[in-house]
Specification:
One of its GO terms (cellular component) is plasma membrane. 77% of the residues lie in helices and 0% in strands. The chain is mainly alpha-helical and 326 residues long.
Length: 326
Amino acid sequence: MDIFSPVQILAETVVHQWLGIQVGSYLGEAVNFFIYDSIKIGLLLVVINYVMAITRYYFPMEKVRDLLTKRRWFGLDYLLAALLGVITPFCSCSSIPLFIGFLSAGIPLGITFTFLISSPLVNEASLLLFPALFGWRVTALYNLVGIIVSILGGILIGRLHMEKYVESSLLKFKNRAQALRENEGVELSVGERAKLWWSDGWEITKRVYPYVLLGVAIGAIIHGFIPQTLIERYLGTKSWWAIPAATLSGVPLYANSVGVIPVMEALIGKGIPLGTALAFMTATVTLSIPEALILKKVMKWQLLATFFGITIVGIMLMGYLFNWIG
């Protein structure tokens, strides 16, 4: 059972019973999407930022940074970040709260981006639904390539040393409970710590959440009002430019991995090559306009453009690979 199913039930109740919007209508789909994702991502923000405030208290950022940078095998830290992304069933926007938590805890930039790419790219659909739809060979190869793309993307961003383009308050953030303990030797009671942790977690949440609402609103409009037939019509070609077209068509959209599977099945059923359909699906779940709007609050456009550019190239290469072997 999806832990957010009560939120989905609430969204459906508000849309169809309280507002009286017709089931299956474009408006109903858009409003349902907005209510569900706004609440879901808001809850994730609050919980994850609170947990990260506790983590910073007991595991100061210097210790976390040392743990991840003083490694014996190059790339192990990136692999761990990618595998963490695999086991967290988040869409592109839902993974942002944990990404912010990593940054504020002092985790190196490249590693945080490996997680941000991997979390929506290698997901519950690619692990659980792909075998029945496309077989184990495609499933194994897709997940392996997805992990490799996320690791290489994170390493490249890390090598570019783009920390200066991240919101400085996130990199330097130290919660007040930790500061009192380290600088003044004050040991707080459990209740006092809990209040300070909540205050620090809420401080980050309230800065980001307005952008979450704006991003989800745009995603809801796209999700509700762009018909599937429009996508099918323009991706049916087998020309070389079909992969870039599929990738760039998927970027403005916003859906989770399970929600985009029916669209992908429809595309393949109409004769669209597997690699082209995968490029569209991967771009849809990994990158989106709502994600860009939220990330713009925590980083400058130079880093945002680099992240999108690297990920788009990785998705295109994945698409060409599957069309070649298909």
